[in-house]
Amino acid sequence: MSHAPVFFPPGARIAVLTCEPVGVLDYLAPEDGVRQGQLVLVPLGPRRVLGLVWAEGTGDFDLAKLRAVGRVLDAEPFSPGFLDFLTRAAEYTLTPLPLMLRMATRAPDIDQPPAARRIIVPGSGVIPRVTEARTRVMAVMAEHGGASFAASELAQLAGVGTSVVKGLVGTGTLAEIEAPRDLPYPALDPGRPGKALDGDQQAASDRLRGAVRGGAYGTTLLRGVTGSGKTEVYLEAVAECLAQGRQALVLLPEIALSAEFLDRVEARFGARPGEWHSGITRTERRRLWHMAGRGQVGLVVGARSALFLPFRDLGLIVVDEEHDGSYKQEDVVYYSARDMAVLRASIARAQVVLASATPSLESWANAASGKYARLDLRSRYGEAELPQMAAIDLRAEAMEPGRWISPTLAAAVTARLAKGEQSLIFLNRRGFAPVTVCRACGEQIGCHQCDARMVEHRFQNRLVCHQCGETRPIPLACPSCGVEGKLAPIGPGVERIAEEVAARFPDAKATVLSSDLFHSARALKETIAEISEGDTDIIIGTQIVAKGHNFPRLTLVGVVDADLGLQGADLRAAERSFQLMRQVAGRAGRISGAAPGVALLQTHQPDHAVIRAILSGQDEAFWDAEAAGRQAAGMPPYGRLAGIILSHPDLDVVSDFARHLAGLAAPLAEVGAELWGPAPAPIARVRGRHRMRMLIRAPRQAPLQAAISDWLAGVRLPTNLRLSVDIDPQSFL
Ligand code: ADP
Ligand code: ZN
């Protein structure tokens, strides 16, 4: 569908997509004319709003009364392919186009011209008088080599006052200079040699390089256990893409992965890539957005929203850990970055690499049907085997009351301590205890605003709602019956396991890794670095340890509750549990010359199909069985689902409206779709809003989006009622 951008001469009638709910409006092209895809400011009522020159104007609004475009922004025009992507992504996800435009322009001050600004650069580099604050500033400078900061941004990243930075400028350690804004990124050198690849790796690299050279669209599932060299292989595809003069994007599930990753890219290509995630400064965000459009950043490493950067010529998108739930955004715009990557690549004639040790069932099925290519890396690089896996049958263990580490697991930890090796104790539950109950009246302390229990966080000494984030001091007396001293924590969270570890292994150094215990991504990165240097004997962690980090001395993984996640009506409960357990177990490595790592899963159901599949290592058998079950039930990827989420502060308003809406659902039935619900959502209240859900299931080929649009067209929403459509939902809460 590629077409050259159209030029509109001064005074021509043009359609501009505004980022306001009104959407597309007609304007007159400005004095010097304007091209399709250019960003402009247009008058809207008394305001000026951001707009995108969309197409020739079509409205019948009187030409004489049309207002002219205010100003054309100094930014590269969006390519016709990118406009096409935004249109089709909007159609697929049933998102209004103005919201898509907002996603594609999420950079600060893009309406301001590039001007010089004062930034901090290295000076003599020597600190005359070393203080902790100064050292931290220099560490941030070193870590983000090549990035440009204002003094205040640098201070903020380092967690110090601006005066510390100014002080270092005063001593000549740093310098403050006038620099043009939005500098191009240093070029990466694709010609530098990578590591010598082994058989599977070489074959995979050859295939991917060939595909990228071909310059057509294609998606490849790259499968291999953690440590098999998937990153090494897809960096070869990146090298090929850069050699072709095109841009590459690597999506990663979370920031914590990127520190280690950026070093690797630098080692491979001699310079750092552009970074795009919530932890970067406003200056960098703006710079990267502009450079993506101008083709002056070769490789971008980013979180899911990097997919909406206006790349000039994207040749490759890698989605690492493609099964990861964080690729699905469920806020304002509901989209899956993995699926949208495939859409974008198909329009841009780019290649997609989906990398995972435990692919999603969707990707596995697409590879099985031949829609995607599949490449397997069969062994761990330089090693023959995965960790040994075994279940600990909790029914047969002599568990002490108030303790969650079984004697068998404790003995295994003791053995690692004796050898100076690390152990990881895994429990995917933050906080100290999931439930606080009053032993006098039985009351479970809940959130005032949500249908959720408050979780005790002992480090913070507060109760926290994991739905809305509300926190409260832990009360002395029961809020229901008023009796004091009877509130008791029930069940374990990681903090409670940490307490048990401290009691059982008083001489061991233990570290808890849980997202809520770190005030910044930087603090988390530092702790992870300390752990990989071996500064910890026992790691106690939630799922943030499951991903990507290499802990070379780690040889034992103990899963406190492998049953957590097996229950639950969620369609993907088994799949997710399988993936998570697999990923965690994969953390246990082998120290050269020693016995392989061991993963021990504490469970009450050692015969559960998922536990057996994890232990036996027969992934294909697990996926076959899951796929058969989904196919029989007409569930994704063999059928299609869409969720409708309605919320309102008043329960009657939302339930009446939901029933009314369900009564209008004839357009769904016409395409063979079924409607389930409305029913109160499993989380029936969040932040004071009552929530109802409906679920639509349709045959795979049904025109689901069109039917939903028909259904909702012309429906008037009661004031303050929110309605969201979630195509291909991952969460049903
Ligand atoms: P994955 O992405 O599958 O987890 P990685 O690419 O991160 O695997 O590889 C795991 C480790 O093994 C990394 O430290 C990597 O540098 C190293 N490695 C992988 N392949 C090779 C190779 N061919 N030569 C040298 N080191 C390798
Ligand atoms: Zn709450």
From TrEMBL:
Specify which residues bind Zn(2+) 1 according to the UniProt entry for this protein.
Answer: 438, 441, 478, 481
Top-level taxonomic group: Bacteria
Cofactor(s) needed, names only, are: Zn(2+)
Region span, Disordered: 182-203
Question: One GO CC term of this entry?
Answer: primosome complex
Which residue range or ranges hold the Helicase ATP-binding domain? 211-377
State the free-text cofactor note: Binds 2 zinc ions per subunit.
Gene Ontology terms: biological process: DNA recombination; DNA replication initiation; DNA replication, synthesis of primer; double-strand break repair
Against InterPro entries, the record matches this protein to: DEAD/DEAH_box_helicase_dom, Helicase_ATP-bd, Helicase_C-like, P-loop_NTPase, PriA, PriA_3primeBD, PriA_3primeBD_sf, PriA_C
**Cross-referenced CDD domains:** DEXHc_priA
Enumerate the residues binding Zn(2+) 2. 447, 450, 465, 468
List the PROSITE patterns.
Answer: HELICASE_ATP_BIND_1
Coiled-coil regions listed:
none
UniProt cross-references to Pfam families, sorted A to Z = DEAD (PF00270), Helicase_C (PF00271), PriA_3primeBD (PF17764), PriA_C (PF18074), Zn_ribbon_PriA (PF18319)
Query: Which of UniProt's keywords are assigned here?
Result: ATP-binding, DNA replication, DNA-binding, Helicase, Hydrolase, Isomerase, Metal-binding, Nucleotide-binding, Primosome, Zinc
According to its UniProt record, the EC number is 5.6.2.4
Reactions accelerated catalytically: ATP + H2O = ADP + phosphate + H(+); Couples ATP hydrolysis with the unwinding of duplex DNA by translocating in the 3'-5' direction
Which GO molecular function annotations are given, in alphabetical order?
3'-5' DNA helicase activity; ATP binding; ATP hydrolysis activity; DNA binding; zinc ion binding
What is the role of the protein in this entry?
A: Initiates the restart of stalled replication forks, which reloads the replicative helicase on sites other than the origin of replication. Recognizes and binds to abandoned replication forks and remodels them to uncover a helicase loading site. Promotes assembly of the primosome at these replication forks.
| Assembly description | Component of the replication restart primosome.
Q: Which NCBIfam families did the record assign? A: priA, PRK05580.2-2
Family statement drawn from the similarity comment of this UniProt entry? Belongs to the helicase family. PriA subfamily.
Mind telling me what this protein is named?
Replication restart protein PriA
- What gene does the UniProt entry assign to this protein? priA
